[in-house]
Every structure is written in structure tokens, then in C-alpha cells.
């Protein structure tokens, strides 16, 4: 009796595990993976070459494959322009004004006016030329070393 119950239990367990395995694959692979990727092209060799040449003229390498700094975006300014602007800001005395200083004080207004005059006048162009001249001199010194 115990032997027949044992074999009945084993048969039921095997039947259930088989049913579970069979029931696990109810969806075709294309429905949960997607359509197979097509590895062959329908284009001719000439069409592929023409598309490659057209894309090579306009495409740029991804940033991780480039050497050197990225191209400046729209509205971006050069480093030398930022440095010249900062130098004029400091020369006008605005660097001495505290972050929470009174911006309506006569001293601040005078310094702000001096900065704006230099920023919009020939001083900015002269400072930019001085920085660029220094950068080109430094670059030449590096090359000659």
C-alpha cells in the first residue's frame, strides 16, 4: 500500500512538473523579443557608397572619439572672451564689491558704469587681443620645446 501511494505521488509530481514546463512557453518568441533583425541590405553597393559619402561630409565623430575640445555651440563664447570680460570686471573694481553689497550705492554705480564703458568700448578689444597674443605666444613656446 505504501509503495503504491509512493508511486502515485511520484507520478503526480512528475505530471505537474511536466505541465509547468509545457505551460511556460505559451507566447511565440517574436511576440516578446520582436522581429528578427535583417542582416542583409536591399541596397546596391553604389547606393551604399553614395549614402556613405553624403553622410561623411556632414557627420561628425561622437565626442568620445574626438581629440580636443568640442565645437562651441550656438550662443557660446570663446574662453578668451570670458577671460577679457572678467579682467575688465576686476579692473573696474567690481571684484571688491561683496556679494551682498548694496547695489544702489554711488560707489557700486560708478564701478558698474566704468565696467560697461570698458566692456562696450575699445578696452575690450584691446584686452582680447592681449589675451590672444599671450595664448599664441604660449602655444609657440610649447611647440618649440
TrEMBL record:
Keyword hit for Signal: yes
Superkingdom of origin organism: Bacteria
The name under which this protein is listed is DUF4148 domain-containing protein
Q: Where is the signal peptide?
A: 1-23
Per UniProt, which keywords does this protein have? Answer: Signal
- Organism of origin is Variovorax dokdonensis
Amino acid at each position: 500500500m505504501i509503495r503504491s501511494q509512493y508511486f502515485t505521488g511520484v507520478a503526480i509530481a512528475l505530471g505537474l512538473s511536466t505541465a509547468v514546463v509545457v505551460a511556460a512557453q505559451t507566447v511565440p518568441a517574436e511576440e516578446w523579443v520582436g522581429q528578427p533583425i535583417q542582416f542583409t541590405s536591399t541596397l546596391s553597393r553604389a547606393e551604399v557608397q553614395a549614402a556613405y559619402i553624403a553622410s561623411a561630409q556632414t557627420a561628425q565623430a561622437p565626442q568620445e572619439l574626438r581629440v580636443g575640445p568640442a565645437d562651441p555651440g550656438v550662443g557660446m563664447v570663446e574662453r578668451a572672451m570670458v577671460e577679457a570680460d572678467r579682467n575688465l570686471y576686476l579692473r573696474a573694481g567690481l571684484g571688491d564689491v561683496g556679494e551682498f553689497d548694496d547695489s544702489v550705492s554711488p560707489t557700486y554705480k560708478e564701478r558698474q558704469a566704468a565696467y560697461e564703458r570698458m566692456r562696450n568700448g575699445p578696452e575690450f578689444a584691446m584686452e582680447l587681443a592681449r589675451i590672444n597674443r599671450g595664448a599664441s605666444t604660449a602655444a609657440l613656446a610649447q611647440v618649440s620645446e
